[in-house]
Amino acid sequence: MADLNNLSSHLIASLGGNLKNGKRRIAAFLSAICLASGTAMIATPALAVGDESNLAIATPAAISCGGYSRTYYDVTNVTKVKKVTHASKHYNGTSSNSTATYTSAKQLTLTAGLTYSTGGSASFNTVVAKFEGTTGLSLAASGARTSGSTLSISATIKPKKYVVVAAGNSEVTGKWKKNYCASGNSGLIVQATGTGKSHAIRETATVQCDLTQPSGSLAGTVKSKYC
């Protein structure tokens, strides 16, 4: 567009006193250039007699989304964190291994769904599919909850050792935005924004408290919180 403005100024200077008679030739010449280059041109107001200040090339309006309509979602700040939903600590005070089924009491309930900051209508399935693409996890559907019941987990505890039997999930959270691109040039509309969360399939862990556990794992989280 800057090149067209420069060209317009050059033509005006060349025409000098004949500006009034030459304005139609300028417009026709610029239109031919725009058609050849594919550049959009917005018509300028007609010049009044003796008025040279109105001769200008307007900046073309931006065309949003290529001139067609669609709805699309953006997700940001997607994180996945190991959350302990059930845990109980047990001690074997005998001189031999103790193998038994131990109870694991509820610590936390995880849920899956959307919350809204603006707007009020969005597709959880679309948001969670984007979360899955970012994290590589298969996530629970909207409204799903982790178990609130006490779990029973089989474990072997060595003599004079503490063990935590636990269960948990990877919880995924993130921000989302629902965008609508209107047909033509009317522009982008943000229809709704908010946060979303879900969780992956449950894991169980038997954690001996005096042993090192992998960082970032469910066992590592259990050791740091319950040992």
Any overview of this molecule?
With 227 residues, the protein is an alpha+beta fold. Helices cover 24% and strands 36% of the residues. It has four helices and seven strands. The strands form two sheets. Strands 1, 3, 5, 6 and 7 form a five-stranded antiparallel sheet that branches. The chain has a two-stranded antiparallel sheet with strand order 2-4. Helix 1 packs antiparallel against helix 2. The protein starts with a helix and ends with a helix. The N terminus is likely disordered.
Layout of helices and strands, plus pairs?
Layout: H1 2-15, H2 19-37, E1 70-92, E2 98-104, E3 113-118, H3 124-135, E4 151-157, E5 161-181, E6 188-199, E7 203-208, H4 218-226
Antiparallel strand pairs: 1-5, 2-4, 3-6, 5-6, 5-7
Helix pairs in contact: 1-2
